[in-house]
Structures are given as structure tokens and as C-alpha cells.
Amino acid sequence: ETGVTQTPRHLVMGMTNKKSLKCEQHLGHNAMYWYKQSAKKPLELMFVYNFKEQTENNSVPSRFSPECPNSSHLFLHLHTLQPEDSALYLCASSQDGAEGETQYFGPGTRLLVL
Amino acid sequence: AQSVTQPDIHITVSEGASLELRCNYSYGATPYLFWYVQSPGQGLQLLLKYFSGDTLVQGIKGFEAEFKRSQSSFNLRKPSVHWSDAAEYFCAVSPAGGTSYGKLTFGQGTILTVHP
Fold it and tell me: Which residues of chain A does B44 touch, with a Cβ-Cβ cutoff of 8 Å?
């Protein structure tokens, strides 16, 4: 595997379900990000992890819970979501202090909440 | 706060025609500037980036962008568009230092349609 991978690529869940999104980066980076991309809206930064520590939480509802067990893996745990949470969730990674912290993105997980 | 404006929501060009996608930013200093492309159902792919130096930067797939400080612009260009360039294009900026270092702000995106 190369670059940034995300699984699953598509997910359908009910409002009472619990699911998790997984992101893995194979670039040796030490910072990882979750973004939400909804139709007709700019990409929204949700969470930032730097050296496994959460450094940013952009007022994201508690039904989204991130986890970063190491610098290569990032999870987004989902529970009791709402239909408006349906979106493309993108993961990205960057190297602190290098390339102007250029972010490299995964293919995304398309989430549909019924 | 920094902001990015892509004035054109949708652009249509004919294959082989030239292309320019506009991007204007608002920031107190010169930020780092990026263009990304997103094909349907895919993530964002980095086309090019500007940090400093030569204001004309070359990217992948034959794209280039020019940073104009006086106009706070970073327009993306391609001399001859191919049908495979049809996608959505995002301009993004990040501060070149400080506590917000590395945090990207994206424009709304420009959807490019290419006619044969």
C-alpha cells in the first residue's frame, strides 16, 4: 500500500448504529487529519492529530470520536449519527515541519446515514 | 482569519482549449498556497504548491499556477485541456507559520466540464 488509505470506501448506517472509519498513512508522516466534505460546502476540518496528540477539535459534535493509536493510524468512531452527517469523510496526513506541511489525502469514505 | 474565494463554481471548456481557474485569498501575510483536484468519488490529489521563490510554479498533469501578491491571487492554468481533466478543483491556503501552521483553508471548489 502507498499513500493514504481509508476503509471502508462506502458505509450505510442507521442512526442507532455504531461504526468506525479507518485511515492509514504509509508516508512516514506524524500529523493526521479528518475532514468532512458535504455537498455545496467547503471542506471542513474536524480533527488534527500531531504526534498522536489531538491538537484541534473544530467544535465537532461528540457523536464523532477520533482515535489515533500511533502516527500511522487514525480512526473516527461514529455513534447515534444524524442524517445531516451524511458526507464524504476524508483523511489526510502531513509531516510536521516539512514541505510547508503539505497534506496528502486518502480516497475518502462515503457515509450515508438513514 | 484567512479565507479563500474561487469565484467560478462551474466552468465549461472544449477539449484542447486553454483553461484558467481563479483563486483569491485573504490573509495578513503571504500564506502557503495549494491546488488540489478531486475526481468524482475520489479524494483530493495535490496538483501543485507555492511556498516562496519563483511565482510561477509547475505541477502535475501539465498544470501551472502563478502567485500574484499584489492581487492576492493564485490562478491555475493549463494551455490545452484534456477530457480527463474534468473534475473539481480546490484552491487552499495555510499560514506560513504561527499557531495555525499547516491548517488548510479551502475554497468552495470549481467544477470543470470538458466538451469533446
Answer: 90, 92, 105
